[in-house]
Amino acid sequence: MEYNDTFQTIAFESEETLFKEKGSKFFGYAFPIETEDEVKPIIEILKKQHPHAVHFCYAYQLGIAPNLSYRANDDGEPGNTAGAPIYGQIQSFGLTNALVVVVRVFGGVKLGVGGLIAAYKTTAQMTLEVCELVEKTIDVPFLISFDYKNMNKVMRVIKEKKLDIVSQEMEMDENSGMPIGKIVIKTRKKNAETVFSIFDLMFEIDIKFI
């Protein structure tokens, strides 16, 4: 079974870019995001940076096919003149888990539908061109629980399979009074079933998806 478990995104927040057209200023920003909940706080920060701006237009995309989600917001500009051209650039660069915001400070001259589309597209393109892009993997987390005496068995598999340890802790079992190990690991989606099977078949080892 083929898994698409990699995606391209922005490494970190971009530098501010500026595009000027007939007196209007278009400030561009790009951010790596993982959830929709991150968008509003970012917009609020930009509103404080640009108290004289009227339009804070943006687009974002999250996830990979077939579980893609996206949004394009014109924030008061004529329909599809801002959010859509910004989103078009996110698609053009092949990005996901990315947010692009273009802040417009009106210069007194109306640009018309065509002018707006071109300005928002150009600003988004300029912004993404200065970004460092990275390829990331979609990872699946597991919780492994085991008696302390089996620690070496667990760690051997983790080392052999080059699994990432997210967290690990020891706690005392209420019934036996013996120490219990709990390790959260993650692995690439395409390897998840194999890794799960290895631990699931091991004696006295408990593994579950989280």
Can you tell me about this structure?
- Helix 2 (83-92) runs parallel beside helix 3.
- Strand 9 (164-172) and strand 10 (179-188) form a beta hairpin.
- The mean pLDDT is 93.
- The protein has five helices and eleven strands.
- The strands form three sheets. Strands 2-3-6-4-5 form a five-stranded antiparallel beta sheet, with helices on both faces.
- 28% of the residues lie in helices and 37% in strands.
- The protein has two domains: 6-136, 2-Layer Sandwich (Ribosomal Protein S5, domain 2), CATH 3.30.230.30; 138-209, Alpha-Beta Plaits, CATH 3.30.70.1150.
- The protein has helices spanning 39-49, 83-92, 112-129, 151-160, 192-200, and strands at 6-10, 17-21, 24-32, 55-62, 69-73, 98-105, 133-137, 139-147, 164-172, 179-188, 205-209.
- The radius of gyration is 24 Å and the shape is elongated.
- It has 210 residues and is of the alpha+beta class.
Strand line-up across the major sheet: 2-3-6-4-5
Could you spell the SSE succession in H and E letters? Answer: EEEHEEHEHEEHEEHE
Task: Identify the CATH homologous superfamily of the largest domain.
Answer: Impact, N-terminal domain
Q: Which percent bin holds the helix content? A: 25-40%
What is the CATH topology assignment of the largest domain? Ribosomal Protein S5, domain 2
Give the terminus-to-terminus CA distance.
Answer: 22 Å
Would you identify the regions where 5 or more consecutive residues have pLDDT less than 50? none
Count of distinct structural domains:
2
Instruction: Give the biggest sheet.
Output: 5 strands, antiparallel
Oligomer: single chain
Query: What is the overall shape?
Result: elongated
CATH architecture of the largest domain: 2-Layer Sandwich
Quickly give the structural class. alpha+beta
Number of strands: 11
Protein name: YigZ family protein
Organism: Flavobacterium cupreum
Domain Impact N-terminal: 22-127
GO biological process, one term: regulation of translational initiation
